[in-house]
Amino acid sequence: MKERKTKTICFTNNKGGSGKSTACANLAYELSQAGKKVLLVDGDMQLNLSLSFFDEEKVLEMAESEKNLYYAVKGKKDLKDYVIATPYENLDLIPSSTLMSQIEYELFTMMQREYVLKKCLKGIYEEGEYDYILMDAPPTLGTWVINILCTADYVIVPVEASPWGLFGLANMFDFLRGMDEMTEAKVMGVLITKVDERKNYYKQTREILSGYESIHVFDSSIHVDTSIEWAQDASVPVGVYKKSARSAREFKELAKEVIKYGSR
Ligand SMILES: Nc1ncnc2c1ncn2[C@@H]1O[C@H](COP(=O)(O)OP(=O)(O)OP(=O)(O)O)[C@@H](O)[C@H]1O
Ligand SMILES: [Mg+2]
Questions:
Q1: What is the model's pLDDT at position 164?
Q2: Whose C-alpha lies nearest to ligand 1, atom 31?
Q3: Where in the chain are the domains?
Q4: From the CA of 160, how far away is ligand 2's center (Å)?
Q5: CATH class of 7-254
Q6: Mind listing the pLDDT tens digit for each residue in 197-245?
Q7: What atom of ligand 1 comes closest to residue 44's alpha carbon?
Q8: Nearest in space to 220 (alpha carbons), one of 243, 252, 254
Q9: Which atom of ligand 1 is closest in space to residue 195's alpha carbon?
Q10: Which residues pair with 186 in a beta bridge?
Q11: How far apart are CA 170 and CA 43, in angstroms?
């Protein structure tokens, strides 16, 4: 099979609040700043990825229109027609809708229900305009997340450096292994997030993760940084909010790792 030019990376962890949407938005921004053409797909009804680039009013307007991921998947439409430009060069978005809460139900009666999203992206893959597609997933492991995994080349798993951060992770890797025959997606790496230097969970987390053979852990990790919350409040990437912020520099480093990984 001919290799697709566009690399698709999804952010998955069934543990909520592990930093998926934050990592997806900020890595996408830094990849675009590095000259890569990036498309974001907001796969979560919480709309957090869309809110990372547009204010609440605009996000709700998109969510209530018919030009969002929910209607595209429900109607098996070509997602090319659902792309909107973000305020940043090289960075586009397919917005989500709160109706995504019903997507499991919609998929249930569809033929080949695990591959609906992949088919909706066919036109975009064929055009090959994007270097990367980055997809944010909800904190679940149902048919919708399987759809995301079935079109992904790589999975990035954000894990919070906290006592419960790793809880359930083994289950998730089992789940991914169980999908071996459905997808070629492989784990690009685990990203340790919300690192707090006053506590020693970071070291613990890295040590435990090093016990997972064949699972790569990114050298870059993301510290707790209030600039992230301020940036999210302003609907801008942290690199735009404050270029010198620690987390902005960390996401820049992560982008370098991801680009390097792709060129191996
Ligand atoms: N490095 C960080 N420093 C400070 N706050 C952070 C950091 N990363 C994430 N957060 C905050 O933690 C919360 C959860 O992050 P985020 O929404 O990215 O997680 P998630 O995995 O996408 O959550 P969900 O599972 O609900 O989709 C958010 O309020 C976000 O602002
Ligand atoms: Mg999220």
A1: 85
A2: 229
A3: 7-254
A4: 13
A5: alpha beta
A6: 888 899 999 999 998 888 999 999 999 999 999 999 999 999 999 999 9
A7: 27
A8: 254
A9: 1
A10: 154
A11: 23
The predicted structure's pLDDT at residue 263: 76
Query: What tens digit of pLDDT does each residue of 145-192 get?
Result: 999 999 999 999 999 998 888 888 888 899 999 998 999 999 999 999
Q: Whose CA is nearest to atom 8 of ligand 1?
A: 19
How far, in Å, is the centroid of ligand 1 from the Cα of 228? Answer: 9
Ligand 1 touching residue 15 (CB < 6 A): no
Assess whether pLDDT exceeds 70 at residue 18: yes
Cβ atoms of 49 and 156 within 8 Å: the answer is no
Strands, E assignment, the chain: 7-11, 38-42, 84-85, 91-94, 132-136, 154-160, 186-193
- Is this structure's pTM higher than 0.90? yes
The Å distance, Cα 64 to ligand 1 centre, comes to: 24
